[in-house]
Amino acid sequence: MTKRHPDLRDLVETSKGLAHPARLRLLGMLATGELCVCQMTAVLGLASSTVSQHLSVLSRGGLVADRKEGKLVYYRLGEGEIAKTVLPPLLALLGEDEQAKADRALIERLREVPVLELCAADLDLVAIGVAKPAPQHPGTPPPRGATP
Amino acid sequence: MTKRHPDLRDLVETSKGLAHPARLRLLGMLATGELCVCQMTAVLGLASSTVSQHLSVLSRGGLVADRKEGKLVYYRLGEGEIAKTVLPPLLALLGEDEQAKADRALIERLREVPVLELCAADLDLVAIGVAKPAPQHPGTPPPRGATP
DNA sequence: CCTACAATTCGGCATATGACGAAACGACAC
DNA sequence: GTGTCGTTTCGTCATATGCCGAATTGTAGG
C-alpha cells in the first residue's frame, strides 16, 4: 500500500495550485505538452523566480511533474490520482478562455523555435519573431492605428 | 446571451473556494443535500462569522447557492457550469477522506433534529445528543478512558 | 414600536501569498 | 578549475486571507 488515498489536505494543496491566474495559464500551456521553464516564463512575462515559485506550488499539489535535461528543466502535467481526476474537466473549461487561447497560440509558435535561441534572446518573444511588436496593454485590443 | 462562458477569472474564483479545508468540508456536507448555516457552523466548530465568510467565498466561486427561509439561510451546491463540471470528480475524491466521512455521519444525525432546536442549544452538538461528550482533540481518537 | 435572534458585515490582528532582485545552485563549455 | 547560464532559493516588501468578537441587518413575534 504505497499509494495512499487522497486526503483533505492533499485536495487543498491541489486546489491552491489552481487558485491563481498565472498558474491556471501554466496548466493550460502544459496541456499542449511538456515545456521548458524559460518558455513559460516568456509567455507569462513574469520574473523567472516568480514563475519558479508558481511551478513549485503546482508541484506540491501534484499538478505537474518535472524533468531535467542539461541546464534546462521541463515540466509536464502531473499523473497522480488527483491530477488525473481534477485536471481534465478543468482544462476543458479553461480551453474556452481567451487568454488561454492566446497562450496556446503563442506556445504553438514557440515550439518552432529552439529553446536555447529563446534563452539567448533574453526571453524576448518579439526579438525572435514569435510575438508582434508591442501593444499598449496586455488585453486583446484589435490593432487600430500604430504609434506615430 | 445571458450565460457567458466561464472566464479565467471565474475559474480562479472557483478554485479559491476549494483551497481551504473548512470550505472543502462545507462542500462535502452540502453534497448530502441543503443545509442551514447553523448546522454547518455546529459541525465545523468555528465562529459563525467565519463560517459565513467561507460560504461567501464559495458563493463568489459559484460553488454554492443560498435560499432564505424566515430567519434561517439554507445553502446548497451551485448549479452553474463550472460547479457542475468541477464538483462531481472533486466530491468523489473528497468522499474518501476520513474527516469528510465523519462530517457526513454527523450531518446525518443532525438532520433528525429540528434546526431551531440546534440553535436553541447554542450549536452545542453534545447538548442535543448528536455528538459524544468531549474528546481531548478534534481528530478521531477511539475513546480509551474518560476524564477522571 | 420594541425585542429576539440567525446571519452577515465590520474592525482588528496574525499569518500566508505573490511579486521582484540578489544570491546560491547545478550542469555544461572552455 | 573557472566561467557561463538556466533555474531555484532567499530576503524583503505589499497585499490578501483567516480568524474572532463586536456591531449591523433583516425577519418574525410580543
Q: Most extensive chain contact?
A: A-B, 28 and 28 residues
CA-CA gap between termini of chain A = 67 Å
Compressed to H and E, one letter per element, the order of chain A equals HHEHHEEHHH
> Are there runs of chain A of 5+ residues with pLDDT below 50, and where?
143-148
Most strands sheet of chain A: 3 strands, antiparallel
* CATH T-level topology of chain A: Arc Repressor Mutant, subunit A
**How many distinct domains of chain A?**
1
Number of E-state strands of chain A: 3
CATH class of chain A: Mainly Alpha
Radius of gyration computed on alpha carbons of chain A: 17 Å
Structural class of chain A: mainly alpha
Strand order of the largest sheet of chain A: 1-3-2
Q: What share of the residues of chain A does DSSP label as strand, in percent?
A: 5-15%
* Oligomerization category of the chains in this entry: homodimer
Helicity range of chain A = 40-55%
CATH architecture level-2 label of chain A: Orthogonal Bundle
The CATH superfamily of chain A is known as: Winged helix-like DNA-binding domain superfamily/Winged helix DNA-binding domain
Provide a descriptive summary of the structure in words.
Two copies of one chain form a homodimer. With 148 residues, chain A is mainly alpha-helical. Chain A has a single domain (8-120), classed as Orthogonal Bundle (Arc Repressor Mutant, subunit A), CATH 1.10.10. Helix content of chain A is 51%, strand content 9%. Chain A has helices spanning 8-18, 21-30, 37-44, 48-60, 81-94, 98-110, 115-120; strands at residues 35-36, 64-69, 72-77. Chain A has a three-stranded antiparallel beta sheet. Chains A and B meet through α1, α2 and α5 of A and α1, α2 and α5 of B. Chain A binds a DNA duplex (30 and 30 nucleotides) through α4.
